[in-house]
Specification:
Protein name: Periplasmic heavy metal sensor
Number of strands: 0
Pfam family, one: Metal_resist
CATH topology of the largest domain: Four Helix Bundle (Hemerythrin (Met), subunit A)
InterPro entries: Metal_resist
Number of domains: 2
Shape: elongated
Number of helices: 5
Length: about 140
């Protein structure tokens, strides 16, 4: 019976590893939307000195918050790993750990969008149009 639990755990761990590898490969191949947005802001929109200073403050503030959210997500992943190891299958602890991580992921998404809108608020109408187009492209995968 113990070998079955070990086998189930190994299969689940392997599946999570494969998913992680596929996501990583996708991001590496396509470039991250964040790096494309950063390039747009700092190299293509011709920000004036005042806009650049405002964007820098917004980015510094968000970097701190983003790091905290990333640590929370990492902790949630550790809880999920513990639950998988304890239950060796999809049980109530695994389900709760997944739900918990979804809350953190949702918070990251909300705060990232707040950050994006804060940066947008310092742009001119023409810059905002280019910025909006890049955001839509990043979310939909168009123009890639």
């Amino acid at each position: 019976m113990a070998w079955r639990k070990t086998l189930v755990f190994a299969i689940v761990a392997f599946a999570f590893g494969m998913i992680g590898a596929l996501v990583g490969q996708t991001l590496i191949r396509s470039g991250t939307p964040e790096s494309e947005l950063h390039d747009l802001l700092h190299h293509q929109l011709n920000l004036d000195a005042k806009q650049q200073a405002q964007i820098d403050v917004i980015e510094q503030r968000f970097a701190v918050r983003r790091r905290a959210l990333e640590l929370e997500l990492r902790a949630d992943n550790a809880h999920l790993a513990d639950a998988i190891q304890a239950e060796h299958g999809y049980g109530p602890r695994v389900s709760d750990a997944i739900d918990r991580s979804h809350v953190a992921m949702g918070q990251m998404q909300k705060e990232t969008l707040e950050h994006i809108f804060a940066m947008r608020s310092v742009l001119t109408t023409e810059q905002s149009a280019k910025f909006d187009k890049e955001i839509v492209n990043a979310l939909t995968g168009k123009d890639r």
